[in-house]
Amino acid sequence: MTVFERIKTLAKRRSITLKQVTSDLGFSENYFYSLKAGKKPAADKLVAIADYFNVSVDYLLGREDTAEVNDDHLKVVAAHIDDDATEEEINEILNFIDFVQSKRGK
């Protein structure tokens, strides 16, 4: 999966558009589509995108296969999720956490 495809997937999980992500991050409207066309992402932008989605830069670059939570507070919350929770319920909880953080401008 390319950097663009990973970003698109992360945005889809949050039910937001790439246009919204570029707006939230202050990037040009066509930035992600330049990545789709093969442009190499700048390191500072990769860090901003990783922070926005709470994933590692390695995940965005394809060096990791899972979009693991990289925030210690989120790991604490995840540890308190009921063991009987379904994968869908866990994803909903994580999406809600992402939503709350994005509303704070994290």
Question: Which features characterize this protein?
Answer:
106 residues; mainly alpha; 434 Repressor (Amino-terminal Domain); 62% helix; Lambda_DNA-bd_dom_sf; DNA-binding
Structural features, described:
- The chain is mostly helical.
- It has a single domain (about 5-105), classed as Orthogonal Bundle (434 Repressor (Amino-terminal Domain)).
- It is about 60% helix and about 0% strand.
- The chain is built from seven helices and no strands.
- The longest helix has 17 residues, at about 85-105.
- The model has no long low-confidence stretch (mean pLDDT about 80).
Question: Helices, strands, pairings?
Answer:
Layout: H1 3-13, H2 18-25, H3 31-36, H4 43-53, H5 57-61, H6 72-79, H7 87-103
Quick structural gist:
With 106 residues, this protein is mainly alpha-helical.
Report how far apart the termini are: 26 Å
SS element count, helices: 7
Tally of strands: 0
Helical content (DSSP H or I, runs of 4+): 55-70%
CATH superfamily: lambda repressor-like DNA-binding domains
- Quaternary class: single chain
User: Using only CA atoms, what is the Rg?
Assistant: 14 Å
By secondary-structure content and strand pairing, the structural class works out as mainly alpha
Indicate the CATH topology: 434 Repressor (Amino-terminal Domain)
The description of the largest β-sheet is: none
What's the level 1 CATH class?
Answer: Mainly Alpha
Shape: globular
Low-confidence stretches: none
Q: What is the ordering of alpha helices and beta strands?
A: HHHHHHH
How many individual domains? 1
Mean pLDDT: 82
